[in-house]
Amino acid sequence: MPMIVMLLLFAAMMYFTQRQQKKAQASRQDLLNNMEIGSEIITRGGLHGVLSATNDSEGTIELDCEGVFLTFERSAVLTVKPANSTAVSDGNDGFAEHVENRAKSSDKEESFTDQLADDSEHALEDLQEDTESIIKSESPFIDEK
To answer: Annotated region Disordered: where (predicted)?
Structure first.
């Protein structure tokens, strides 16, 4: 009798495990089947891009990553964010936006580097002053010969 109960528990565990795996597999297949041109894709390797073309016969997709078009297997897709609009972009709009944002951030970077250089100069001046004052003072740590 105890052996039958253990077999029934084992069979129930296997059934529920397979059921969960089938549900996960079905939801992944729906995700891959419902990809639209313009959807934002993240691959298993961590690459972010916009879906620009699909090839169902070869099982591949083409991603637009800021003007660089890359071909991946459909199985490389990790997540899909639906397209924001139904219109397909030619890819140049995103690139122009990227260039503008880069120009704005480079202005900030330049001001940051200027500030860093000024801070370094002040720190060097302070260090030199401290060194001179230590040398001029009668410090027990400095042996005079």
So the answer is: 86-145
**How far, rounded to the nearest angstrom, does the alpha carbon of residue 59 sit from its chain's CA centroid?**
25
Exposure of 64 by Cβ count < 10 A (0-12 exposed, 13-18 middle, 19+ buried)?
Answer: buried
- Asked if 90 contacts 100 with a C-beta cutoff of 8 angstroms, the reply is no
Burial tier of 52 (Cβ tally within 10 Å: 0-12, 13-18, 19+): buried
pTM of this prediction exceeds 0.70: no
Residues 6+ apart with CB under 8 A from 48: 40, 41, 42, 65
Distance CA(10)–CA(106), nearest Å, equals 62
Question: Which backbone phi and psi does 83 adopt, to 5 degrees?
Answer: -65, 140
Structure tokens at 77: 């897709």
Type of residue at 47? L
Cα distance between residue 123 and residue 115, in whole Å: 12
Q: Are 43 and 72 in contact (CB under 8 A)?
A: yes
Cα–Cα distance between 127 and 12 in angstroms, integer? 75
